[in-house]
Amino acid sequence: MALSKEEKNREAINSFLKNNDIDHNTAMGYDNKLETRYYVGDSRKFAEETRIGFNIIGTSDINVIFHEINDIEFETAFKITEQMFSYDEDNETLIITGDTSKKHNDAYKIIISSIYLDLS
User: From CA 4, how far away is CA 6, in angstroms rounded?
Assistant: First the structure.
């Protein structure tokens, strides 16, 4: 039996969490600091480290949230029922794509890279 869209999206997030040794039971906290790139259409809007929370337990809740990004200009909360999630094992990235946004008038893509190394 084929997986539903929500199951595929949840599996992508779970694979990313496992690759980064992040416990899905505590992943919604502020401890996950990851490199994030945000694109609208073909234009990159930002690339920076940010704190991200993950929730793969519920389907009606927010599944990925950017704790430190300005939510006036950018989408900051993502649901497995509304966006597409994919895990790129070769590049160790979680990719979120969406076609509709209240913040901008074009499709968007977010690329979250595996654990951000803070060398300071």
Answer: 5
Report how far residue 110's alpha carbon sits from residue 38's, in angstroms, rounded to the nearest whole number.
Answer: 5
What DSSP state is assigned to residue 47?
E
pLDDT surpassing 80 at residue 94: yes
> Which tokens is 54 given?
């993950």
Q: Are 37 and 47 in contact (CB under 8 A)?
A: yes
CA atoms within 13 A on the CB side of 30: 3
CA distance 106 to 108: 6
- Check if the beta carbon of residue 68 is closer than 8 Å to that of residue 44: no
Model confidence pLDDT, tens digit, residues 41-55: 999 999 999 999 999
Taking only the tens place, the pLDDT of each residue in 38-92 is 999 999 999 999 999 999 886 668 899 999 998 888 999 999 999 999 999 999 9
Q: What one-character DSSP code corresponds to residue 4?
A: P
